[in-house]
Amino acid sequence: MYQVDDKFRNQGKFKQLSVSNTHLLRICILGGGFGGLYTALELGNFAKCPYKYEIKLIERRDNFLFTPLLYEVVTGELHNWEVAPSYKKLLADSSAKFCQGEVKDVDLEENLVTLQNGEILTYDYLVLAVGKETRLDLVPGAAEYAQTFRTLADAEYLKERLRFLEASDLPVIKIAIAGAGPNGVEIACKLADRLGKRGEIRLIDRGNEILKTFSKGSQTASYRALVKRGVQIGLNTNIEAIKSDAIIINHQGKTQHLQTNLVLWTGGNQSIQWVKNLNCQHNQQGQLVATPTLQLAGYPNVFVLGDLAEIRDAQGNETPATAQAAFQQAPCAARNIWAKITGRKLKSFSYLHLGEMLTLGINNAVVYSFGITIDGNLARIIRRGVYIQRLPTFNHKLQVARRWILAGIKKLLRR
C-alpha cells in the first residue's frame, strides 16, 4: 500500500490546481530521454483541449538519443542521424517546444525551475525525467582515465579512439570493459567484431554472472557470443585502480596489473546533484518516491519517470529502471496530466515486461519474449524491426526504415 511521509503530506500540495479556460497552463518537462521526449510528444496530441497551454521540453543536448542502437554507430552499421535526430526536428509538428538548457535547481514549493544560464521558468505541471549520471568515483583513476559509453559524444570519441589505435603499429589493441551488464556485454561484442583478431577484449565484473537481471536464455546466448569472439570474461573480479595505460584488478585475493589501451566504464550510476537536493521523499538509494500514478510523493502536480524514481504499481511491485519502462511510462504520465487538468480520475501505471533484446555483434542478437529465446541473424532482424516501431515520430520511422530496407536490398544484390 502506498504511503506518504507526514513531512510531505502536510505541505499543502495535495489540492487540485484551480484553472480556467483563460489561464495559460505551463507544462515543463525536464529531460529529453525516452520518458521526457515521449511524454512531450504524447502531450502534443491534446491540441483540442479547451485549455490554453504551453509545453516546454528542457534538455541540455540538442539531439535525442535512441540509446539501444548506440552500439551500431561504433561499428558503422547505423548513421548518427538515425539514432540521434534533433529535438527541433522531432517536435516540428508538435505543440511541444524544445528549449535547450541545463537545469540548475527546482523549487517544488514555488513551482520554479532555474537554468544554468540564469533563466527562471514557472510551471503548473512538472515532469522530471532527467535520469541519472555515471558515477566515476568508485575506483581511483576512473574519472581521469576511463571512458563512459552512454551518449552520442561518447560514441564519437570511441570511434575516433579506435581509428587512432587501428592506425597505430600496435600488434594487439587491448580494451578493458568494466561492468558485465547489458551495456558492457553489447559493446564488448561490437568491439570484438570490429577489431577482429587484433583486438583483446576483457569484460570485468565483481559479480558471479553476466547480465544478472536477465533471463537464462539471454545469458546463455550472450555468453556463447562473447566466448565465440574471444572476449575474456573476468567474473568475481574487483577493479582496484585505473591508470593511463593499465588496469589493476583483484581476483580471489590476487592482484594483477594489466596493460590496456582503453578502459570503458559501463556500471555505477547516481542521481544528479539538484535531484538529490529536492525537498521531497527519497528512498535509501537516493531515488525520488513516486505514487502508482507517477506523481511525486507530496506533489501531485509533479510527475516522475525513469530511473531517477522509485515507481511501484498499485500492488506494490517495483518498476525496473530500464528504457522499456520509461517508454511505457510516458503515455501514462501524459494521460494523467490531462486527467488532472480536466478533473478526471488518474490511472495507476502498470509495467508490462515485453522481453529483452541485445545486440551481440554485427549481424547477431538475442531476443527473449514470453519464454521464447531467439538468437542469431533472425534475432537481429526482429530487434531492428521492433526498434523501428519505437522510434519517436512517424516521419523518422519512415526515413530510417527506408534506409534500412535499401541497404538490405543492396547487400543482397552484391551476393
UniProtKB/TrEMBL annotation:
Belongs to the NADH dehydrogenase family. It comes from the Bacteria. Its cofactor is FAD. The keyword Zinc does not apply. Residues 26-330 form the FAD/NAD(P)-binding domain. This is NAD(P)/FAD-dependent oxidoreductase. Keywords: FAD, Flavoprotein, Oxidoreductase. Gene3D superfamilies: 3.50.50.100. InterPro entries: FAD/NAD-bd_sf, FAD/NAD-binding_dom, NADH-Q_oxidoreductase. The keyword Magnesium does not apply.
